[in-house]
Design brief:
alpha/beta; Amidase signature (AS) enzymes; single chain; 11-stranded mixed beta sheet; about 475 residues
Protein backbone atom coordinates (compact mmCIF):
# COMPACT_ATOMS: atom_id res chain seq x y z
CA UNK A 1 0.00 0.00 0.00
CA UNK A 2 1.32 3.44 -0.86
CA UNK A 3 2.01 6.04 1.82
CA UNK A 4 -0.68 8.20 0.24
CA UNK A 5 -3.35 5.69 1.33
CA UNK A 6 -2.33 5.62 5.00
CA UNK A 7 -5.38 5.86 7.23
CA UNK A 8 -7.86 5.30 4.38
CA UNK A 9 -9.57 1.93 4.57
CA UNK A 10 -9.66 -0.40 1.60
CA UNK A 11 -13.39 -0.52 2.36
CA UNK A 12 -13.91 3.24 2.25
CA UNK A 13 -17.15 4.39 0.68
CA UNK A 14 -17.30 6.68 -2.33
CA UNK A 15 -18.31 9.47 0.00
CA UNK A 16 -15.28 8.90 2.22
CA UNK A 17 -12.91 8.71 -0.74
CA UNK A 18 -14.41 11.86 -2.23
CA UNK A 19 -13.93 13.69 1.08
CA UNK A 20 -10.28 12.58 1.24
CA UNK A 21 -9.73 13.74 -2.34
CA UNK A 22 -11.34 17.10 -1.62
CA UNK A 23 -9.10 17.61 1.42
CA UNK A 24 -5.98 16.60 -0.51
CA UNK A 25 -5.25 13.63 1.78
CA UNK A 26 -5.08 11.24 -1.15
CA UNK A 27 -4.82 11.23 -4.92
CA UNK A 28 -6.92 9.41 -7.45
CA UNK A 29 -3.75 7.74 -8.71
CA UNK A 30 -3.14 6.24 -5.28
CA UNK A 31 -6.72 5.03 -4.98
CA UNK A 32 -6.60 3.39 -8.40
CA UNK A 33 -3.18 1.79 -7.81
CA UNK A 34 -4.36 0.24 -4.56
CA UNK A 35 -7.53 -1.06 -6.18
CA UNK A 36 -5.52 -2.65 -8.99
CA UNK A 37 -3.15 -4.16 -6.39
CA UNK A 38 -6.08 -5.65 -4.49
CA UNK A 39 -7.60 -7.13 -7.63
CA UNK A 40 -4.27 -8.73 -8.47
CA UNK A 41 -3.82 -9.98 -4.89
CA UNK A 42 -7.17 -11.81 -4.78
CA UNK A 43 -7.46 -13.83 -8.01
CA UNK A 44 -9.10 -16.73 -6.16
CA UNK A 45 -12.25 -14.62 -5.77
CA UNK A 46 -12.63 -14.80 -9.56
CA UNK A 47 -14.48 -11.48 -9.54
CA UNK A 48 -12.89 -9.85 -12.59
CA UNK A 49 -13.00 -10.91 -16.24
CA UNK A 50 -10.55 -8.26 -17.41
CA UNK A 51 -8.88 -5.09 -16.14
CA UNK A 52 -7.75 -1.91 -17.89
CA UNK A 53 -4.75 -0.82 -15.75
CA UNK A 54 -3.05 1.50 -18.25
CA UNK A 55 -6.23 3.35 -19.17
CA UNK A 56 -7.31 3.53 -15.52
CA UNK A 57 -4.01 5.00 -14.32
CA UNK A 58 -4.01 7.53 -17.15
CA UNK A 59 -7.58 8.55 -16.22
CA UNK A 60 -6.53 8.86 -12.58
CA UNK A 61 -3.65 11.16 -13.47
CA UNK A 62 -6.06 13.28 -15.51
CA UNK A 63 -8.46 13.45 -12.55
CA UNK A 64 -5.62 14.53 -10.25
CA UNK A 65 -4.63 17.24 -12.70
CA UNK A 66 -8.21 18.53 -12.88
CA UNK A 67 -8.32 18.69 -9.10
CA UNK A 68 -5.01 20.56 -8.92
CA UNK A 69 -6.43 23.12 -11.32
CA UNK A 70 -9.68 23.42 -9.36
CA UNK A 71 -11.70 21.83 -12.16
CA UNK A 72 -12.91 18.64 -10.46
CA UNK A 73 -16.11 17.35 -12.05
CA UNK A 74 -17.82 16.60 -8.74
CA UNK A 75 -17.71 14.07 -5.92
CA UNK A 76 -17.33 11.10 -8.25
CA UNK A 77 -14.29 12.49 -10.04
CA UNK A 78 -11.31 10.17 -9.66
CA UNK A 79 -13.22 7.30 -8.03
CA UNK A 80 -12.73 3.80 -9.53
CA UNK A 81 -15.48 1.29 -10.29
CA UNK A 82 -16.17 -1.92 -12.17
CA UNK A 83 -18.89 -2.97 -14.62
CA UNK A 84 -20.68 -6.24 -15.22
CA UNK A 85 -19.59 -7.98 -18.42
CA UNK A 86 -22.97 -7.33 -19.97
CA UNK A 87 -22.05 -3.71 -20.69
CA UNK A 88 -20.15 -2.76 -23.83
CA UNK A 89 -16.72 -1.14 -23.61
CA UNK A 90 -15.40 0.13 -26.93
CA UNK A 91 -12.57 -2.04 -28.24
CA UNK A 92 -13.30 -5.00 -25.95
CA UNK A 93 -15.66 -7.95 -26.38
CA UNK A 94 -18.79 -8.33 -24.27
CA UNK A 95 -18.86 -12.04 -23.46
CA UNK A 96 -21.70 -12.11 -20.91
CA UNK A 97 -20.09 -14.98 -19.03
CA UNK A 98 -20.30 -17.24 -22.07
CA UNK A 99 -18.11 -18.85 -24.71
CA UNK A 100 -20.98 -18.97 -27.18
CA UNK A 101 -20.61 -15.34 -28.26
CA UNK A 102 -18.09 -14.18 -30.81
CA UNK A 103 -15.24 -12.24 -29.18
CA UNK A 104 -15.93 -9.19 -31.33
CA UNK A 105 -14.76 -5.87 -29.88
CA UNK A 106 -17.63 -3.52 -29.08
CA UNK A 107 -17.95 -0.58 -31.46
CA UNK A 108 -19.08 1.83 -28.74
CA UNK A 109 -19.20 2.10 -24.97
CA UNK A 110 -22.51 1.62 -23.13
CA UNK A 111 -24.40 4.84 -22.40
CA UNK A 112 -24.28 4.39 -18.63
CA UNK A 113 -20.48 3.97 -18.70
CA UNK A 114 -20.11 7.13 -20.75
CA UNK A 115 -22.16 9.02 -18.16
CA UNK A 116 -19.90 7.85 -15.36
CA UNK A 117 -16.81 8.74 -17.39
CA UNK A 118 -18.25 12.23 -17.88
CA UNK A 119 -18.58 12.45 -14.08
CA UNK A 120 -14.90 11.51 -13.77
CA UNK A 121 -15.30 7.93 -12.55
CA UNK A 122 -12.63 5.47 -13.65
CA UNK A 123 -13.47 2.04 -15.04
CA UNK A 124 -10.99 -0.54 -13.71
CA UNK A 125 -12.41 -3.51 -15.54
CA UNK A 126 -15.27 -5.89 -16.20
CA UNK A 127 -16.58 -8.36 -13.64
CA UNK A 128 -18.14 -11.80 -13.87
CA UNK A 129 -21.78 -12.63 -14.52
CA UNK A 130 -23.86 -15.77 -14.67
CA UNK A 131 -23.86 -16.94 -18.29
CA UNK A 132 -26.12 -14.54 -20.23
CA UNK A 133 -27.13 -13.12 -16.80
CA UNK A 134 -29.70 -15.92 -16.54
CA UNK A 135 -29.40 -17.22 -12.98
CA UNK A 136 -29.85 -16.11 -9.38
CA UNK A 137 -27.23 -18.13 -7.48
CA UNK A 138 -24.24 -16.51 -9.19
CA UNK A 139 -22.66 -19.72 -10.47
CA UNK A 140 -20.86 -19.98 -13.80
CA UNK A 141 -19.07 -23.24 -14.68
CA UNK A 142 -18.07 -21.76 -18.05
CA UNK A 143 -15.95 -18.79 -16.95
CA UNK A 144 -15.76 -19.51 -13.23
CA UNK A 145 -17.92 -18.70 -10.23
CA UNK A 146 -16.95 -15.72 -8.07
CA UNK A 147 -16.64 -16.76 -4.42
CA UNK A 148 -18.60 -15.11 -1.66
CA UNK A 149 -15.92 -13.38 0.47
CA UNK A 150 -17.74 -13.95 3.75
CA UNK A 151 -16.56 -17.55 4.09
CA UNK A 152 -12.91 -18.29 3.34
CA UNK A 153 -13.26 -21.96 4.40
CA UNK A 154 -16.43 -23.03 2.55
CA UNK A 155 -17.03 -21.80 -1.03
CA UNK A 156 -20.47 -20.16 -1.01
CA UNK A 157 -22.81 -18.69 -3.60
CA UNK A 158 -22.29 -14.99 -4.30
CA UNK A 159 -25.78 -14.40 -5.66
CA UNK A 160 -26.43 -13.55 -9.27
CA UNK A 161 -26.49 -12.73 -11.92
CA UNK A 162 -24.34 -9.70 -11.03
CA UNK A 163 -22.07 -12.00 -9.06
CA UNK A 164 -18.74 -10.35 -9.81
CA UNK A 165 -20.17 -6.94 -8.95
CA UNK A 166 -21.27 -8.04 -5.49
CA UNK A 167 -18.02 -9.87 -4.72
CA UNK A 168 -15.79 -7.03 -5.97
CA UNK A 169 -17.52 -4.45 -3.77
CA UNK A 170 -17.81 -6.69 -0.71
CA UNK A 171 -14.15 -7.78 -0.83
CA UNK A 172 -12.85 -4.22 -1.03
CA UNK A 173 -11.64 -4.40 -4.63
CA UNK A 174 -13.74 -1.44 -5.81
CA UNK A 175 -16.09 0.91 -3.96
CA UNK A 176 -18.84 0.49 -6.56
CA UNK A 177 -19.76 -1.81 -9.42
CA UNK A 178 -22.58 -1.60 -11.92
CA UNK A 179 -24.91 -4.54 -12.29
CA UNK A 180 -28.08 -5.35 -14.19
CA UNK A 181 -31.35 -6.57 -12.72
CA UNK A 182 -33.88 -8.58 -14.71
CA UNK A 183 -35.57 -10.49 -11.89
CA UNK A 184 -33.29 -9.80 -8.94
CA UNK A 185 -29.80 -9.81 -10.40
CA UNK A 186 -28.60 -6.74 -8.47
CA UNK A 187 -30.43 -7.49 -5.23
CA UNK A 188 -29.46 -11.17 -5.04
CA UNK A 189 -25.70 -10.52 -4.83
CA UNK A 190 -26.32 -7.45 -2.68
CA UNK A 191 -28.15 -9.58 -0.15
CA UNK A 192 -25.74 -12.51 -0.33
CA UNK A 193 -22.61 -10.31 -0.16
CA UNK A 194 -23.86 -7.72 2.31
CA UNK A 195 -23.70 -4.61 0.13
CA UNK A 196 -26.21 -1.99 -1.02
CA UNK A 197 -27.88 -2.67 -4.36
CA UNK A 198 -30.38 -0.52 -6.26
CA UNK A 199 -32.75 -2.02 -8.81
CA UNK A 200 -33.72 1.12 -10.65
CA UNK A 201 -37.07 1.77 -12.30
CA UNK A 202 -37.12 0.57 -15.89
CA UNK A 203 -36.59 3.66 -18.02
CA UNK A 204 -34.73 5.67 -15.38
CA UNK A 205 -31.24 4.58 -16.46
CA UNK A 206 -30.47 4.14 -20.15
CA UNK A 207 -29.78 0.61 -21.35
CA UNK A 208 -27.99 1.49 -24.57
CA UNK A 209 -25.04 -0.85 -25.02
CA UNK A 210 -26.08 -3.76 -22.81
CA UNK A 211 -26.74 -7.32 -23.91
CA UNK A 212 -30.48 -7.86 -23.35
CA UNK A 213 -31.96 -10.79 -21.47
CA UNK A 214 -35.58 -9.65 -21.11
CA UNK A 215 -36.14 -6.07 -22.20
CA UNK A 216 -39.49 -5.94 -20.43
CA UNK A 217 -37.62 -6.30 -17.10
CA UNK A 218 -33.97 -5.31 -17.68
CA UNK A 219 -32.58 -2.42 -15.62
CA UNK A 220 -29.15 -1.09 -14.60
CA UNK A 221 -28.06 0.02 -11.15
CA UNK A 222 -25.17 0.30 -8.69
CA UNK A 223 -23.88 -2.06 -6.02
CA UNK A 224 -22.06 -0.05 -3.38
CA UNK A 225 -21.05 0.10 0.30
CA UNK A 226 -23.50 2.77 1.38
CA UNK A 227 -26.91 4.13 0.48
CA UNK A 228 -25.37 7.56 0.04
CA UNK A 229 -22.99 6.10 -2.56
CA UNK A 230 -25.89 4.52 -4.45
CA UNK A 231 -27.63 7.92 -4.52
CA UNK A 232 -24.49 9.64 -5.79
CA UNK A 233 -24.18 7.14 -8.63
CA UNK A 234 -27.87 7.25 -9.53
CA UNK A 235 -27.70 11.04 -9.79
CA UNK A 236 -24.95 10.62 -12.39
CA UNK A 237 -26.48 7.84 -14.47
CA UNK A 238 -30.21 8.63 -14.59
CA UNK A 239 -31.71 10.42 -17.55
CA UNK A 240 -32.15 10.49 -21.30
CA UNK A 241 -30.36 7.88 -23.39
CA UNK A 242 -30.62 8.25 -27.15
CA UNK A 243 -30.26 4.46 -27.46
CA UNK A 244 -33.09 3.63 -25.05
CA UNK A 245 -36.53 5.08 -25.89
CA UNK A 246 -37.82 4.09 -22.44
CA UNK A 247 -35.86 7.07 -21.08
CA UNK A 248 -37.38 9.69 -23.38
CA UNK A 249 -39.18 12.59 -21.73
CA UNK A 250 -38.53 11.67 -18.10
CA UNK A 251 -37.77 14.35 -15.54
CA UNK A 252 -34.73 13.78 -13.28
CA UNK A 253 -35.62 12.23 -9.93
CA UNK A 254 -32.81 14.12 -8.10
CA UNK A 255 -31.97 11.29 -5.67
CA UNK A 256 -29.67 13.42 -3.48
CA UNK A 257 -32.39 15.92 -2.65
CA UNK A 258 -34.21 14.87 0.51
CA UNK A 259 -31.94 11.88 1.07
CA UNK A 260 -31.64 12.70 4.77
CA UNK A 261 -35.28 13.60 5.44
CA UNK A 262 -35.78 10.45 7.51
CA UNK A 263 -38.85 8.23 7.75
CA UNK A 264 -40.96 9.90 10.43
CA UNK A 265 -44.59 9.76 9.33
CA UNK A 266 -44.04 7.19 6.57
CA UNK A 267 -46.14 4.02 6.42
CA UNK A 268 -44.66 0.68 5.36
CA UNK A 269 -46.57 -2.43 4.35
CA UNK A 270 -45.05 -5.87 5.09
CA UNK A 271 -46.18 -9.42 4.24
CA UNK A 272 -47.89 -11.51 6.88
CA UNK A 273 -46.42 -14.61 8.52
CA UNK A 274 -47.80 -16.91 5.83
CA UNK A 275 -46.03 -15.01 3.05
CA UNK A 276 -42.82 -15.11 5.09
CA UNK A 277 -43.03 -18.86 5.78
CA UNK A 278 -39.98 -19.64 3.63
CA UNK A 279 -37.75 -17.19 5.50
CA UNK A 280 -35.21 -18.87 7.79
CA UNK A 281 -35.30 -17.92 11.50
CA UNK A 282 -32.04 -15.97 11.50
CA UNK A 283 -32.97 -13.92 8.44
CA UNK A 284 -36.44 -13.27 9.86
CA UNK A 285 -34.89 -12.03 13.10
CA UNK A 286 -32.68 -9.54 11.25
CA UNK A 287 -35.71 -8.41 9.20
CA UNK A 288 -37.76 -7.79 12.34
CA UNK A 289 -34.86 -5.89 13.91
CA UNK A 290 -34.66 -3.57 10.89
CA UNK A 291 -38.41 -2.95 11.11
CA UNK A 292 -38.04 -2.10 14.79
CA UNK A 293 -35.36 0.46 13.95
CA UNK A 294 -37.59 2.08 11.34
CA UNK A 295 -40.45 2.20 13.82
CA UNK A 296 -38.14 3.85 16.36
CA UNK A 297 -37.44 6.50 13.72
CA UNK A 298 -41.15 7.31 13.47
CA UNK A 299 -42.39 5.04 10.70
CA UNK A 300 -45.55 2.94 10.94
CA UNK A 301 -45.42 -0.77 10.03
CA UNK A 302 -48.58 -2.45 8.76
CA UNK A 303 -48.75 -6.23 8.20
CA UNK A 304 -51.10 -7.54 5.55
CA UNK A 305 -51.17 -10.75 3.49
CA UNK A 306 -49.99 -10.29 -0.09
CA UNK A 307 -52.66 -10.58 -2.81
CA UNK A 308 -50.86 -13.64 -4.21
CA UNK A 309 -48.26 -15.89 -2.67
CA UNK A 310 -44.73 -14.66 -3.48
CA UNK A 311 -44.08 -17.97 -5.21
CA UNK A 312 -46.91 -17.22 -7.68
CA UNK A 313 -45.30 -13.93 -8.66
CA UNK A 314 -41.94 -15.68 -8.91
CA UNK A 315 -43.28 -18.30 -11.35
CA UNK A 316 -45.13 -15.70 -13.41
CA UNK A 317 -42.05 -13.51 -13.83
CA UNK A 318 -40.00 -16.61 -14.64
CA UNK A 319 -42.26 -17.51 -17.56
CA UNK A 320 -42.04 -14.03 -19.08
CA UNK A 321 -38.28 -14.07 -18.57
CA UNK A 322 -37.94 -17.44 -20.30
CA UNK A 323 -40.01 -16.31 -23.29
CA UNK A 324 -37.90 -13.20 -23.80
CA UNK A 325 -34.66 -15.07 -23.20
CA UNK A 326 -35.58 -17.52 -25.95
CA UNK A 327 -36.11 -14.63 -28.34
CA UNK A 328 -32.72 -13.08 -27.54
CA UNK A 329 -30.62 -16.20 -26.95
CA UNK A 330 -32.34 -19.16 -28.59
CA UNK A 331 -29.92 -19.26 -31.51
CA UNK A 332 -27.03 -19.86 -29.11
CA UNK A 333 -28.57 -22.88 -27.39
CA UNK A 334 -30.27 -24.65 -30.31
CA UNK A 335 -27.06 -25.71 -32.00
CA UNK A 336 -26.18 -29.39 -31.46
CA UNK A 337 -22.64 -28.36 -30.56
CA UNK A 338 -23.72 -25.50 -28.27
CA UNK A 339 -21.14 -24.65 -25.61
CA UNK A 340 -23.74 -23.03 -23.35
CA UNK A 341 -23.92 -24.54 -19.87
CA UNK A 342 -26.71 -27.19 -19.74
CA UNK A 343 -28.46 -25.47 -16.82
CA UNK A 344 -28.63 -22.21 -18.77
CA UNK A 345 -29.70 -24.04 -21.93
CA UNK A 346 -32.63 -25.58 -20.05
CA UNK A 347 -33.79 -22.16 -18.82
CA UNK A 348 -33.63 -20.65 -22.30
CA UNK A 349 -35.26 -23.64 -24.03
CA UNK A 350 -38.18 -23.38 -21.60
CA UNK A 351 -39.09 -20.17 -23.37
CA UNK A 352 -39.52 -21.96 -26.70
CA UNK A 353 -42.66 -23.59 -25.30
CA UNK A 354 -44.31 -20.20 -24.76
CA UNK A 355 -45.96 -19.17 -28.02
CA UNK A 356 -47.33 -15.74 -28.90
CA UNK A 357 -50.79 -16.43 -27.53
CA UNK A 358 -49.45 -17.67 -24.21
CA UNK A 359 -47.08 -14.72 -23.96
CA UNK A 360 -49.98 -12.31 -24.41
CA UNK A 361 -51.85 -14.16 -21.65
CA UNK A 362 -48.84 -13.69 -19.37
CA UNK A 363 -48.72 -9.97 -20.18
CA UNK A 364 -52.46 -9.58 -19.54
CA UNK A 365 -52.12 -11.40 -16.23
CA UNK A 366 -49.18 -9.18 -15.37
CA UNK A 367 -51.30 -6.09 -15.91
CA UNK A 368 -54.08 -7.48 -13.72
CA UNK A 369 -51.64 -8.37 -10.96
CA UNK A 370 -50.03 -4.95 -11.14
CA UNK A 371 -53.42 -3.32 -10.57
CA UNK A 372 -54.13 -5.74 -7.73
CA UNK A 373 -50.78 -5.04 -6.09
CA UNK A 374 -51.08 -1.26 -6.41
CA UNK A 375 -54.39 -1.52 -4.56
CA UNK A 376 -52.68 -3.68 -1.94
CA UNK A 377 -50.11 -0.99 -1.16
CA UNK A 378 -52.54 1.94 -1.24
CA UNK A 379 -51.89 4.12 1.79
CA UNK A 380 -48.34 2.83 2.15
CA UNK A 381 -45.16 4.58 1.08
CA UNK A 382 -43.14 1.39 0.60
CA UNK A 383 -43.34 -2.39 0.79
CA UNK A 384 -40.66 -4.15 2.84
CA UNK A 385 -39.43 -7.76 2.72
CA UNK A 386 -36.24 -9.70 3.36
CA UNK A 387 -34.09 -9.48 0.23
CA UNK A 388 -33.71 -13.25 0.32
CA UNK A 389 -35.23 -15.88 2.62
CA UNK A 390 -31.81 -17.48 3.20
CA UNK A 391 -28.13 -16.65 3.62
CA UNK A 392 -25.50 -17.69 1.08
CA UNK A 393 -25.50 -21.50 0.71
CA UNK A 394 -22.42 -23.64 0.01
CA UNK A 395 -21.72 -24.16 -3.68
CA UNK A 396 -21.29 -27.89 -3.13
CA UNK A 397 -24.59 -29.63 -3.75
CA UNK A 398 -26.38 -26.44 -4.82
CA UNK A 399 -29.62 -27.23 -6.66
CA UNK A 400 -29.54 -25.00 -9.75
CA UNK A 401 -33.16 -25.84 -10.58
CA UNK A 402 -34.46 -23.96 -7.54
CA UNK A 403 -35.02 -20.22 -7.52
CA UNK A 404 -35.14 -19.57 -3.80
CA UNK A 405 -33.45 -16.18 -4.10
CA UNK A 406 -36.28 -14.95 -6.31
CA UNK A 407 -38.98 -15.39 -3.66
CA UNK A 408 -39.28 -11.65 -3.00
CA UNK A 409 -37.13 -10.15 -5.76
CA UNK A 410 -38.86 -11.29 -8.95
CA UNK A 411 -42.17 -9.67 -8.05
CA UNK A 412 -40.53 -6.22 -8.14
CA UNK A 413 -39.71 -6.53 -11.85
CA UNK A 414 -43.10 -8.11 -12.52
CA UNK A 415 -44.80 -5.11 -10.90
CA UNK A 416 -42.58 -2.56 -12.70
CA UNK A 417 -41.36 -1.14 -9.39
CA UNK A 418 -38.00 -0.10 -7.97
CA UNK A 419 -36.22 -1.64 -4.99
CA UNK A 420 -33.21 -1.11 -2.77
CA UNK A 421 -31.46 -3.90 -0.88
CA UNK A 422 -29.53 -2.83 2.19
CA UNK A 423 -27.54 -4.97 4.63
CA UNK A 424 -29.68 -6.03 7.59
CA UNK A 425 -26.96 -7.70 9.66
CA UNK A 426 -25.07 -10.98 9.81
CA UNK A 427 -26.39 -14.43 10.72
CA UNK A 428 -23.60 -16.81 11.72
CA UNK A 429 -21.16 -14.55 9.88
CA UNK A 430 -23.20 -14.39 6.66
CA UNK A 431 -25.03 -11.30 5.35
CA UNK A 432 -28.77 -10.75 5.21
CA UNK A 433 -30.66 -7.99 3.42
CA UNK A 434 -33.71 -5.76 3.77
CA UNK A 435 -35.56 -5.05 0.51
CA UNK A 436 -37.29 -1.66 0.23
CA UNK A 437 -39.80 -1.67 -2.65
CA UNK A 438 -41.32 1.55 -4.01
CA UNK A 439 -43.53 2.58 -6.91
CA UNK A 440 -41.97 3.22 -10.31
CA UNK A 441 -39.73 6.30 -10.45
CA UNK A 442 -39.88 6.69 -6.66
CA UNK A 443 -36.31 5.41 -6.45
CA UNK A 444 -35.22 8.37 -4.27
CA UNK A 445 -37.79 7.35 -1.64
CA UNK A 446 -36.25 3.87 -1.38
CA UNK A 447 -32.85 5.51 -0.96
CA UNK A 448 -34.23 7.89 1.68
CA UNK A 449 -35.62 4.97 3.69
CA UNK A 450 -32.39 3.00 3.43
CA UNK A 451 -30.41 6.09 4.35
CA UNK A 452 -32.48 6.58 7.53
CA UNK A 453 -31.61 3.05 8.64
CA UNK A 454 -27.99 3.65 7.68
CA UNK A 455 -27.77 6.78 9.82
CA UNK A 456 -29.51 5.12 12.77
CA UNK A 457 -27.02 2.26 12.71
CA UNK A 458 -24.01 4.55 12.69
CA UNK A 459 -23.21 5.12 9.03
CA UNK A 460 -22.60 2.49 6.38
CA UNK A 461 -24.59 -0.71 6.95
CA UNK A 462 -21.78 -2.66 5.28
CA UNK A 463 -19.66 -5.00 7.45
CA UNK A 464 -16.35 -5.93 5.76
CA UNK A 465 -15.65 -9.66 5.52
CA UNK A 466 -12.72 -10.92 7.55
CA UNK A 467 -9.39 -11.57 5.87
CA UNK A 468 -9.48 -8.82 3.24
CA UNK A 469 -8.13 -5.86 5.19
CA UNK A 470 -5.04 -5.37 3.00
CA UNK A 471 -3.81 -6.62 -0.39
Amino acid sequence: MTVEMTGISAFATIGELAHALEEGRVTSSAIVRRALDRIEAHPSLNAFVMTFPEAALAAAEAADERRRQGRARGRLDGIPFAAKDLLDVEGYPTMAGSKALAATPAAATASVLRRLADAGMILLGKVQTVEFAFGSWGTNPVTGTPLNPYDRAVPRAPGGSSSGSGVAVAAGLVPMALGTDTTGSIRNPSGMCGVVGLKTSAGLVGRGGILPLATIFDSIGPLARSVEDAALVLAAIEGHDADDPATYGLAPTLPLEGLDRGVAGLRFRIPDAGDLASVTPGVLERFRAALADLEALGATIEERPMPQAPEAYMAHAGDILAAEAWHHLGRHVEKPDSVVDPAIRARVVKGKEIDGARFQELIALRRARQIEFMRYIEGADAFLTPTSPITAPPLAGLDESKTTLGTFSRMVNLMDMAALSVPAGLVEGLPTGLQIVVRRFRDPLALRIGRALEVRRGGSLFTPPQGFAEP
